[in-house]
Specification:
The protein contains four helices and four strands, in the order ββββαααα. A hairpin with a 6-residue loop joins strand 1 and strand 2. It is globular. It starts with 7 loop residues before the first strand and ends in a 25-residue tail after the last helix. 19% of the residues are buried. The structure holds zinc ion. The site of zinc ion (ZN) has 8 residues, from strand 4 and helix 1.
Length: 124
């Protein structure tokens, strides 16, 4: 263990401690809706996520949902729709997370096919 202070929460699913964001310190981290990554994935596979109350979306929860939707192959536009956000708001949230150093905030989706192929922030 490092001397880093970890913010811990208790998973609503398994009552085990989890970190509030992905770290190398504990296997469990908050994935969304008060659930750790293991419980969240299990609930998602069983189609039971809807049974778990959605909390106010923190950056952490946003990134968890972002990762899940990216892994399901959705476009940025579709992800924004699912999250009830605008594309610009999703971009801003990702930029804020990136600035904060959260390693989950990486571009992991295909962008709009009409968009330029160069990564955002670089000159075309
Ligand atoms: Zn759990």
């Amino acid at each position: 263990m490092t001397t880093t202070t970890l913010a811990l929460r208790i998973c609503r699913g398994c009552d085990r401690p989890m970190t509030t964001h992905l770290t190398d310190e504990l296997p469990r981290y908050h994935r969304g809706r008060g659930l750790c990554n293991f419980c969240h994935e299990g609930a998602r596979r069983r189609g039971e996520l809807v049974d778990h109350e959605r909390l106010n979306r923190t950056r952490d929860e946003f990134l968890d949902e972002w990762q899940t939707l990216c892994s399901e192959g959705h476009t940025l536009r579709q992800i924004a729709e699912r999250l009830g956000m605008t594309v610009a708001a999703v971009d801003q949230a990702l930029n804020r997370a990136r600035t904060a150093g959260d390693r989950r905030a990486v571009p992991a989706i295909r962008t709009d096919p009409r968009a330029p192929r160069t990564p955002r922030g670089r000159a075309a």
